[in-house]
Design goal:
- This protein is mainly beta and 425 residues long.
- It has five helices and 27 strands.
- Strands 2, 3, 4, 5, 6, 7, 8, 9, 10 and 11 form a ten-stranded antiparallel sheet that branches. It has a four-stranded antiparallel sheet with strand order 12-13-14-15, covered by helices on one side. A four-stranded antiparallel sheet has the order 17-18-23-22.
Length: 425
């Protein structure tokens, strides 16, 4: 489930496999750039002062950083020390939103003693005070069986997006000390909803498709925990999924359903199956939003010359002899991909370009690029192996460990040139 560590800003990106954790630091190249950079820092400080209602505090602000996991965006890390407590905040670089707060200090180790309803009241009040959409939108709270995690209470809410009950891909989280009620961490979802929200399959149709894949006979053990949710894979590609869980024997020690089937609500494809541990095969799936994808439509394999497969929930396709892939696939090569309703920008191998310049086209609720041409522009070559239906991506020449680019939108909003530090893959 969810722990307070989830909301700590990523600090060890260099150790993460298959991902580049780019840390961006300012260059004093001109007064205008320095002014914009200082404005960003000031905005982060002001956000924390407003969040804490302490206008006089003097927090410590780190340099601009990039979170490739949850935010997939730039942020500032702001630290405030008060007595025995260290508060760490993650502030969006573009919008000044406090996306997470972690409060380190003394914690109880005993099982929760605070009444559940009182803990919910404290958590709801805290979230409502700091996140206005919590007061205006409709939210669904995770069931009570997920509340207790060790000595803490963990409360999560998913936004209900429409009349179909579609749940947002990310959630609000509040973690409380189970004895004192002290807030240990808080996090709100990034404003990233690009996937479909209206299903083409009804729940009845999804159950019919899922039934042959269920671990138990659904007439004896029905799908009793069902939701329609946008699910995001590790590259940021979103799909609308019916999640259908079975609970044959409730286990108080582990409330997560032992088995389930996940059906694409648009295509009807079974994207994953979770079966009880101890069976012949087992595909893990975390709750509440970590459904694993395995696509049966995969027609082409893409890998690097080192053997790393570039896999995503939406596989590449070949149309009229051209290999197309979602622009998010470039994240598997260590790129920074920024997407909005108008398009995308890509920062890779010390080059920042608009996805439109890479030949991107919008199709099936996503931006697709011709992979050979796009990667050639970004310093890679693609070798096609027709018999294996495999594309091998190679770096044309090693890029320096540190390089400088002149970024285009949205990177130009940072008001400076960008130094990219990373493994140089």
């Amino acid at each position: 489930h969810i722990s307070s560590a989830l909301w700590k800003p990523v600090r060890k990106g260099f150790a993460m496999k298959n991902l580049l954790f780019a840390i961006l630091t300012p260059l004093a190249i001109c007064p205008a750039a320095s002014a914009k950079q200082n404005a960003g820092l000031d905005r982060a400080v002001q956000a924390v002062r407003q969040f804490t209602a302490k206008p006089g505090i003097k927090p410590k602000v780190s340099g601009l950083q990039y979170d490739p996991e949850r935010l997939k965006n730039f942020y500032y890390e702001v630290e405030v020390k008060t007595g025995q407590t260290t508060e760490t905040y993650q502030i969006g670089a573009f919008d000044g939103t406090v996306y997470s707060a972690v409060y380190e200090g003394p914690e109880s180790s005993a099982p929760p003693t605070l009444p559940v309803q009182e803990a919910i009241r404290i958590a709801s009040q805290f979230v409502s005070a700091h996140y206005p959409p919590f007061r205006s939108a409709k939210w669904k709270m995770e069931p009570e069986k997920y509340f207790r995690v060790g000595s803490n209470y963990v409360f999560t809410w998913r936004r209900v997006l429409n009349k179909y009950g579609t749940l947002s891909p990310w959630w609000i989280s509040a973690v409380l000390d189970g004895s004192t009620g002290r807030v240990l961490s808080y996090g709100v979802p990034p404003p990233r909803i690009f996937g479909p929200t209206i299903p083409k399959l009804t729940l009845k149709e999804a159950i019919r498709i899922a039934s042959p894949h269920a671990s138990f006979d659904i007439t004896a053990v029905p799908f009793d925990e069902v939701s329609l949710e946008i699910v995001e894979d590790r590259l940021g590609i979103q799909r609308l999924i019916w999640t259908l869980y079975q609970n044959p024997i409730p286990n108080p020690e582990d409330p997560t359903p032992p088995s389930g089937v996940f059906v694409d609500a648009i295509t009807g494809e079974v994207t994953g199956v979770r079966i009880p541990q101890g069976s012949l095969s087992h595909q893990t799936s975390t709750r509440p939003a970590g459904v694993g994808f395995q696509s049966s439509r995969k027609a082409v394999t893409i890998r690097t010359s080192a053997g790393q497969e570039l896999a995503s929930s939406v596989p590449p396709v070949i149309q009229r002899g051209v290999l197309w892939g979602r622009v998010e696939l470039l994240r598997a090569l260590g790129s920074i991909v920024q997407i909005d309703s108008s398009g995308a920008s890509v920062l890779l191998n010390n080059r920042a370009v608009s996805a439109r310049l890479l030949g991107a086209k919008y199709h099936d609720l996503g931006w697709w690029v011709p992979l050979r041409g796009a990667l050639n522009q970004l310093g890679w070559t693609v070798d096609w192996l027709p018999e294996a239906r495999e594309a091998v991506v190679r770096q044309r020449k090693p890029s320096p460990y540190v390089g400088v680019v002149s970024p285009g939108p949205p990177f130009s909003q940072l008001g400076k040139r960008v130094t990219v530090r990373g493994p140089g893959r």
